[in-house]
Amino acid sequence: MSAGLDRRALAVLPDGERRSAHDAAVFNLREKRDQAGRAEPDFERLREHARALKAHALDHLDLLLERFEENASRAGAVVHWAEDAPALNRIVHQLLESRGARRVVKSKSMLTEECGLNPYLESRGVEVVDTDLGERIVQLASEPPSHIIMPAIHRSREDIGALFHRELDVPPGETDPVRLTEAARRHLRSCFLGADAAITGANFAVAESGTLVVVTNEGNADLGMSLPGLHVACLGLEKLIPGLADLAVLLRLLARSATGQPISVYTSLVNGPRPGAELHIVLVDNGRTRLLADERHRRALGCIRCGACLNTCPVYRRAGGHAYGFAIPGPIGLVLAPALGGTEEQRGLPLASTLCGSCTAVCPVKIDLHEQLISWRASDVPRGLRERLLSRFAAACLSSPALYALAGLALRAAWPVLSRRWPGNPAGPWLASRELPTHPGASFRARWRDRVRGAGP
Amino acid sequence: MPELAAQRPSVALFIPCYVDQLAPEVGLATATVLERLGCEVGFDAGQTCCGQPFVTSGARREAVRLARAHVERFAGADAVVCPSASCVATVRRRYADLIGEARAWRLASRTFELGEFIVSRLGTSDVGACFPHRVALLESCHGLRELELGRASERLDPEPSRIGVTETLLRGVSGLELRPVSRRDECCGFGGAFSFGFPELSARIGRDKLRALSESGAEYVTGTDVSCLLHLEGLRAREGFGPRAIHLAEILASGAGR
Predict the structure, then answer these.
(1) How confident is the model over B179-216, as pLDDT tens digits?
(2) For residue A385, what pLDDT is reported?
(3) Do A279 and A390 reside in the same domain of the chain?
(4) Do B27 and A444 touch (CB under 8 A)?
(5) Using the beta-carbon criterion (under 8 Å), do B201 and A399 form an inter-chain contact?
(6) Domain harbouring A96, CATH code
(7) Residue A80 lies in a domain
(8) A45 in any annotated domain
(9) Chain A with chain B: Cβ pairs closer than 8 A
């Protein structure tokens, strides 16, 4: 089950400096979000507006998709439809192959992580360079992103210095962020200039105008879209919004929620290809229409991938993104994993939450994240036979006051044994890092009885 | 709901199973405080569990069964008061989904966490308690975000910050010095079944909380949920540092009363 996450956290983020640095760096983003939100008096009203407009967009997704295809095609783009991950990978590969494109610059897209596009292309001889700095770092380190907007947030500058020394010929011992960034920039510039094609994601797709909206802080997506003659944009169906007025609302929330910036450094609106170039847009389902049909959980499709729920999550900050075993970590990942993932372990991920509700409280589109976790637990989390029998037994004891009293006495008798560590102790997980409280003896109801009789305090 | 302050309100105690078994003194303190404030307090020994552990672990059928029994048991009560915010949140926020019946809604609107009952229904913030110690408040998540016993730090609307009912009550306790805690409303890591299913992560979050509480200089940590406090107390016993846990009801019951 999902307890693998607990075990992997120890390896991914060992206790000590690395774990506290990760927690501090990620929580810092949450604090920046708070500051930026406080400086925007309309913030809470914007959230409500965004919730409503995303709900509207999901309710009318069929119409929006058709309108988008029509308008994007009119602007000169070619729209493709991919039912699942293999379809996306095949479409992109065919586009590249038919044009003889061997070198690709790619900007950040969680969708292509979800679909495994990079390994698919690489195994077919295409050289894919991720051009977002954080993405490039994890790519050079041969690992997936650990955060949806800060892919390398689990890495220290010492790690990155050593990695760049090995991969990019930076002098040994270099840890200065400015010099490391300059080295990456020089390296990436040559990749951009030599690229045959660019692959990007998109943050939003505007139906009324057929416009793609791409938001970055590094301008890497923009450079990719501007240099080679072929641009392939891959996006999930849920990115559709009706009009530019809706974009205005979401852009005011996105960067503030993500990094505390009023707006990202680059916000590009792409309407059709550049003169003489090609623009292909691949709209990907990969489980999304199934989720759309699930009334209880469809709101999760409103996610704008800002990462605020990760930043505030007490579990994510102490586990690290790699511990989750799903492309999207943190609360939104727990909610999407059973719908878009589907392995036994991924279906168990909704258990990996304390249900503190902080994710729900920061979400810029007000997805009821922790409530969705509760309902996923009831509907889809695989429960073992032992667990099912245990909860049936416990419920039976709790359903009868007489059995309850008996169970209370048994628990009291067993308490000294439960409080000691021994193999197979059901209290073992608790005792791994905590003590059980001293048993107080008589229960409240026993003492209340004495109190009513005038015998007790 | 009639105005309660004028009459002698009748209160049905809702003492959750784990409080009954592991923290009876919290139940007794709850009764003491309410009686001092003029309530007529009753306890129905037929009650057991509201079903929360089954709701959060996904055992829906069992949760429905216990929720029905709980609604049945308290159907006739004017006001139900409980010293556990997460159990109140279960009745108020989950029952409608478990049993979509009018009496579930009715009970939800009549079930209160102890502190919110005192401040919002009885209309007082001074219970005449005396507790001359440095105290830090653990703002348990369900109480904070589902019952709004305080103002969660995530909320960014510019309205002047309202002080929550728990803090209001603590400020009314004579001699008590409330200490600020960094990341005041971050979860303690308990999370019910989470503490057993993900023991390492639960303990990591808990140890960080214990450290923040300890750095506040408080001698005691208090809150509205016994479960979070037991988790912190268990960590304190293992780690050998940090403030001692004491439930809000026990602080309010200390001293001679008004």
Answers:
(1) 999 999 999 999 999 999 999 999 999 999 999 999 99
(2) 85
(3) no
(4) yes
(5) no
(6) 3.40.50.10420
(7) yes
(8) yes
(9) 215
Cβ neighbours of B66 in A, within 8 Å: 395, 398-399
A21 domain residue, yes or no? no
pLDDT digits (tens, 9 = 90+) for A334-364: 999 998 887 888 999 999 999 999 999 999 9
Contact list, B48 vs chain A (CB under 8 Å) = 398-399, 401, 404
Instruction: Specify the number of domains making up chain A.
Output: 2
107-146 of B, contacting A, C-beta below 8 A: 141-142, 145-146
Amino acid at A136: R
- For residues A278 and A390, membership in a common domain is answered with no
- The residue from A231, A258, A286 where one domain ends is A286
A245 with A119, same domain: the answer is: yes
d(CA A146, CA B234): 32
Q: Tell whether the model's pLDDT for residue B6 goes beyond 80.
A: no
- Within 8 A of B46 by CB-CB distance, chain A residues are 401
Structural domain includes residue A85 = yes
Q: CB distance from B206 to chain A under 8 Å?
A: yes
Query: Which of A255, A286, A317 represents a domain boundary (last residue)?
Result: A286
A119 and A236 part of one domain = yes
Q: Which domain holds residue A73?
A: 40-286
Comparing alpha-carbon positions, the chain A residue that sits nearest to B190 is A354
Q: Does B60 touch chain A (CB under 8 A)?
A: yes
The predicted pLDDT at position A342 comes to 75
The answer to whether A285 and A83 are in contact (CB under 8 A) is yes
Examine the domain organization and report whether A263 and A391 are in the same domain: no
Longest Cα separation, chain B: 50
Q: What is the ipTM of this complex?
A: 0.95
Smallest Cα distance from A453 to chain B, Å: 13
Within 8 A of A429 by CB-CB distance, chain B residues are 195-197, 199
Q: What is the pTM of this model?
A: 0.95
**Which of B145, B200, B205, B226 best probes binding to A when mutated, by most A CB atoms within 10 angstroms?**
B200
Output the furthest CA–CA distance in chain A (Å, rounded). 94
Nearest to B238 among A43, A315, A434 (CB): A434
